[in-house]
Amino acid sequence: MTKPHKRFASRPEWMGLGVMVFVALGVVALAAEWVTGAPAIGLLALLISSVVAIIWTAIMGGLDTRRALAPYGLLKPGILWLSLFFLAPLWSMLEMSLSSKKSRFDFFPAFTWEWSNYSKALTDFGPQFGRSFLYAGIATILTLLIGYPLAYVIAFRGGKYRSLLLGLIAVPFFTSYLIRTLAWQNLLSDSGPVVSVLETLRLENVMEWLHIMDNGRLINTPAAVIGGLTYNFLPFMILPIYVSLEKIDVRLMDASMDLYTTATGAFRRVVLPLSLPGIFAGSLLVFIPAAGDFVNAKFLGSPQTTMIGSSIQDQFLVQLNYPLAAAMSFVLMAIITASVLVYAKFMGTEDLT
Amino acid sequence: MDVGDPVVKLENVRKQYGSFIAVHQADFSIGRGEFFAMLGPSGCGKTTTLKMIAGFEQPTAGHVFLEGEDVSHTPPHKRNVNTVFQQYALFPHMSVFDNVAFGPRSKKLPEAEVKTRVAEMLDVVRLGEFAQRRPAQLSGGQQQRVALARALVNYPSALLLDEPLAALDLKLREAMQIELKRIQREVGITFVFVTHDQGEALTMSDRIAVMSEGRVEQVGAPVDIYARPETLFVAGFIGSANLLPGTIVSSDGGGTRVLLLDGTEVVVAAGNSASSAALSQGNQVTVMLRPEQVVLGGEGAMKVFVTGCKREGAFCGRNSVHALARLCSVHVGRVARNCWFHFYQRRFHRGSAVVIAASSSYPSHQRTT
Fold it and tell me: Which chain B residues are Cβ-neighbours of A270 within 8 angstroms?
C-alpha cells in the first residue's frame, strides 16, 4: 500500500481547506458561466478528482489525518449547497446590478459596468429606503418592549407551564405568514372589528392624535404596517431573549438582594446585562427581515407606505428592470451589514455568556 | 446556654409551608464573633433557618432579632447580614473586583472608598492578583474566596454560609476549613455556618446547633454535643455510639447505677449525665458508649464494665477494629481502636467471651421517655 504524499499527509487540514475553497469557487465559476464548453468539463473533472483525492487521503491516512479532515468532510454538503444556491446567484446578481438594458423590452441586459444603477437606486428610492429602516427600527423596539416582559415571565414564572407557553408562541408559525397578514388586513379594515370598537368607544380622535389612525382609517396607514411587522416578527424576539434569560441562575437575584439592591436594581445590574446577548440576537432576527419585508407594506399599507422590499419586488417582477432591482438589493444589503456591524460594536457582545 | 451580647437571636421561630412545618420553635442566640454551626441531615430545616436570618424567608411565627432589632419581616437588602451561597452565585458578567464591589456600590459609597475596601478584602482572601479575572476563569476554591470577600467587604453583623464547602473536593475542603477560621479571626465577624458534615462542624465551630426534622435538638460547644448529647438523635447522629437502654436502679453522689436490658448493671460516674433532670429510681434512660472509650480484655483483665459474648470482628479503616459483641441483645458496634492487636495475636476468636470495659470518663446517659 502506498502512503499519500508526505507533504499532504503532514498537513491534511490545509488540504481540506484548499479543496473546500477550490470546490466553492469551481461551482460558482460553473454556475455563473465564467467557464464554458470544453474548459468547463475539464474544471468539473478537476473538482470531482479533488474530492476523490481528499477521500482517498482520508482512507489511506492514519487516524490523525482522518480526524483533521473530518470537519471539512462535514462542511462539504453545506459548501456545495451554498455555493450553488447562494454564492452563484449572488455573483450573478452583482453582475446584473452593473448591467444595462438597451431598451425597455430587452430581456437580457448586458454587463457594461453600469454604476448609474446604484445612483439611481439611491436617488429614486431614497424615501422607500428611509421608510424601511424607520418602520423596521420602530417594529424592533416594539417587539423588544412586548417580547422582553413575556420572555421574562415565561423564563422565571413559567414553572411547569414553560414549554406550553413557549409552544403557544410558536403556534402562529403553523399558518402561513401571508395568511396571517391577510387576516390582519381583515381585522384592521374599515368595517372590521378593531375600527368599530374604536368608534364605539369614541377613541378615533385620540388615535388620530397619536397618528395611528388617518381620516378614520386604520388600514393603509404606517401604523398598520408597523403593527403587522411587529406582530409577525415578535416570536423571533421572544425566543432568543427567553433562551438567554432561562440560563440565568435565579440565585444571582437572591445574591444581589443580599448585597443591598432592590428588585429593580437587581434587574438592572444583573439580569439585564446577562440577557443582552438575547436582546442582540433578537433585534437582528427582527430588524433584518423586517427591513427587507414586502408583505406587510403591500397588504396593510398604501402607496405612501411602500417599503424597499416591495419596490425591489416591483422592479423585478412588474417593471422587469433587473439591473436596477439588483442594484437596490445590493444597497439594502450594504446598509443592513453596516448597521449590524455598528450595532454589534455598540452592544459589545464579545462578553462572556 | 446564654450569650451575653447576641448578634442574632431567634425567638420561638416557626416556618410552615402549607401543612408542612419546616422549622418548629427555633430558639437560640448567636454571640458576637462566634463561629456558629447549624448541623443536621438534609431536610432538617437548617437552610430554612439560615434563610430566615438572611431575609429570603419570613417566619410564620416568632421573631428574628439582629443586633437587638426585630427584622422578622425586613427584606434582605435592608438587613446587615450577607450570605455565601451554596454554589457561590457569583455574577458571571463581572470581574472579581466588580463582584466584590457590588455591595459597597449598592450602598452608594464613594468610588475611592469602594476601591480601598475591595482591595483590602481581596488581600484578606489572598486574591489580589485576580481582581480583573472573570469568575469562570477561577478554580472552585478561588470562587469560594471571591464569594467570601464579596460578603465580608460589607462588614456585616453576621456572615451566613450555606454549605460553603460542599462543592469542593476533600483536599480543598480541608484547606478551606483552616482558611475560613483564619479569615474569621482576621475580620472578627460572626459566622453562621450551615452544614451536614459533622466533622466540619465539630472542628470549626465554637458552638453547634444540631437540628433534626425542623427541631433544634441541642445547642452547645462541640465537646458537649459529643460527650453529653441531650437527645437520642444527637447521640446517634454525632460520631458513632452504642446506645444501651436501661432503667435507673439508684443514683447518688458517686454515680448512677443502671440496669441494662439483659440484666447487666453498670455504673455511670456523676457528671457524665447529660440531663440535669432528676435521675430518680425507675426512670428509663439510655447509656451511650463511644467506641473509643471501649476496651476489650480477657476475663478479669480490667475493671469490669460489661461482660458480653463477642460475635465477630473485622478490620475497619486505619486503626479501628470493628467488633460486634452481643450485649443485652444489642450489637455493640465499632468497638475499640486499641484492641486490634488482640485480633492480630489471636487472643480473641469469633465467639469467644470478652469483657468490655469503658476506659475514660465518657460514658453518659440521657433520659428517654
Answer: 91, 93
Chain B residue nearest residue A255, CA to CA = B89
| Nearest CB to B93 within list A255, A260, A352 | A352
Tell me how far apart the alpha carbons of residues B55 and B82 are, in angstroms, rounded to a whole number. 10
Q: Quick check: A352 contacting B, CB < 8 Å?
A: yes
Average pLDDT, chain A: 88
Please indicate whether, in this complex, the C-beta atoms of B87 and A249 are within 8 angstroms of each other.
yes
User: What cell does B264 get?
Assistant: 447487666
Predicted confidence at residue B339, as pLDDT, reads: 47
Yes or no, beta carbons of B93 and A258 under 8 Å apart: no
The one-character DSSP state at B302 is: S
Residues of A in contact with B92 (CB under 8 A): 274, 352-353
Cβ neighbours of residue B164 under 8 Å, at least 6 residues apart? Answer: B84, B86, B144, B147, B148, B176, B180, B193
**In the structure, how many helices (H) and strands (E) does chain A have?**
18, 2
CA gyration radius, chain A = 26
Distance from CA of A281 to the nearest CA of B (A): 18
Distance CA A158, CA A153 (A): 6
Q: In which element (H, E) is residue B257 found?
A: strand B255-260
Q: What are the tens digits of pLDDT across the range A186-227? A: 999 988 888 888 888 888 888 888 888 888 888 899 999 999
Q: Is A208 on the interface with B (CB under 8 A)?
A: no
Does the pTM surpass 0.90? The reply is: no
A270 touches chain B (CB under 8 A): yes
Across the interface, which of A255, A351, A352 has its CB nearest the CB of B89?
Answer: A255
Which of A247, A253, A256, A259 would best serve as a mutation to test chain B binding (most B beta carbons within 10 A)? Answer: A259
- Residue A162's Cβ-side half-sphere holds a number of Cα atoms within 13 Å equal to 12
B295 neighbors B339 (Cβ within 8 angstroms)? yes
Name the residue among A133, A181, A185, A143 with its Cα closest to residue A308: A133
Is this complex scored with an ipTM above 0.95? Answer: no
Q: Quick check: A250 contacting B, CB < 8 Å?
A: no
The whole-angstrom distance between residue B217's C-alpha and the CA centroid of its chain comes to: 11
Q: CB–CB of B77 and A261 under 8 A?
A: yes
What value, to the nearest 5°, has the Cα angle with vertex B25 and ends B22 and B31?
110
Give the closest-approach CA distance of B168 to chain A in angstroms. Answer: 19
Question: Burial letters for B131-159: b for 16+ Cβ neighbours within 10 Å, e otherwise?
Answer: beebbeebeebbbbbbbbbbbbbbbbbbb
- Residue B128: partners with Cβ closer than 8 Å, 6 or more residues away: B119, B122
Mean pLDDT of the region B272-287: 72
The whole-angstrom separation of Cα A203 and Cα A195 is: 10
Domain A119-347 in this protein, CATH class? mainly alpha
Identify which has the larger pLDDT, A5 or A25: A25
The answer to whether residue A105 neighbours chain B at the CB level (below 8 Å) is no
* The three three-digit cell numbers of residue B126, written as one number: 489572598
Counting beta carbons within 10 angstroms of the beta carbon of residue A120, is it exposed (0 to 12), middle (13 to 18) or buried (19 or more)?
middle
Asked if residues B310 and B325 have their Cβ atoms less than 8 Å apart, the reply is yes
Top residue of B85, B91, B118 to mutate, by most chain A CBs within 10 Å, is B91
Q: HSE (CB half, 13 Å, CA atoms) of B132?
A: 1
Binned at pLDDT 50, 70 and 90, residue B48 comes out as very high
Least Cα distance to B2 among B219, B301, B192, B205 occurs for B219
Residue the block writes with cell 458508649: B289
Closest alpha carbon to A290 in A128, A94, A139 = A139
Question: If you average pLDDT over residues A121-128, what whole number do you get?
Answer: 91
